What does this fold into?
Amino acid sequence: MPLYGYKAGNKRSYEEIGKVSLTYEFGWVLGLFYAEGSYTGRGITFSLSPTETEFLKRLNIFAEKYGWHIRSEVKETHGVINGRELNGHVLYAYLENHSFHYLIEAIAGKDKIMPDWLWDCPKDFLKGIIDGYVDGDGCYQAKENRFIVTSVR
It folds into this structure.
């Protein structure tokens, strides 16, 4: 997939600056975005449990391949979401890169939708998407040999 960057000059324009291969690793990052990601002004934020440090490591490895950086911090969180009171901590992982933001938005759109063409991509990439999504919003029940995932939609 093409990766675009801002082109300096008087007109706001973008140029292709590289490519991202449809690998298992990129699929996993995209799946984790569908489960735990959100857009920020300068990039993408992943909202993780403070115990999910392995996910942070995987995000760092992916980002470093492209010369990007993950900034992370743990913050206290309080509030009510869907009638459920939240009190605890969140590990925020920020991948603050416009090119990555545009790439993810080109795939998922503003509403984090999986486009139909995605299912024509390589199977390894699709397996990564599913694994990333399950890692973020699911669990495996070994006794029943099944995966459970959650969604608000």
Notes: The first strand starts at residue 2 and ends at 7. The first helix runs from residue 24 to 36. The two ends are 28 Å apart (CA to CA).
